[in-house]
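dude i think i finally got it to work??
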Amino acid sequence: MKISPDDSRKRKHSEKKILILVLGILFFLLPDKGLAETYKYIDENGSVYFVDSIDKIPAPYRKNTQALPEINREERVQKELNPPVSEKSLLGRWAYQGTENGNSYTVIMSLRQKGVFDGNGYKKMGEKTIVWMFKGNWRLMDGDLVLTYTWSSASEPKRGTSQFDTLLEVNDQFLEVKSGRTGEVIRYMRK
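look at this
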């Protein structure tokens, strides 16, 4: 069977249309690189702020501004917990030690039955030690540990605010979360 030049042209034309269609679809599926950045700055009182535009940062704080990497939901949930975490496995006393601006701090939190939590923290600032306390309610929701603060002796977090931390791993020794506020991975050790 012989293919006529006319049939050959039609076939090539159809192949070109399909290629253009496929390339067009791939173009729309590529991630948008023009997403807004998130900026972090700290004021003279040590309060941390997050804004979506450098223009929203007061001029005196712009020199110490930090651009944070874009965090989307798919990136936050890197590791799926199998099987799902039970509330019972989170019950207990947890401690985290970290540093901020060269000062060490410790946070101790107790997740209790009936969705209640409380705790305290302390930060060493030279010779001075700052101590704060907090309490509230906790629950599991879509792979997140949700902490709703009902009271805190510190200015942050404010009463009534909720923090959504993605659960990364839980076992007999530690509880690892990715902070929904900062994107930082935090590993609490069981006390």
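Confidence is low (pLDDT under 50) at residues 73-82.
im so relieved honestly
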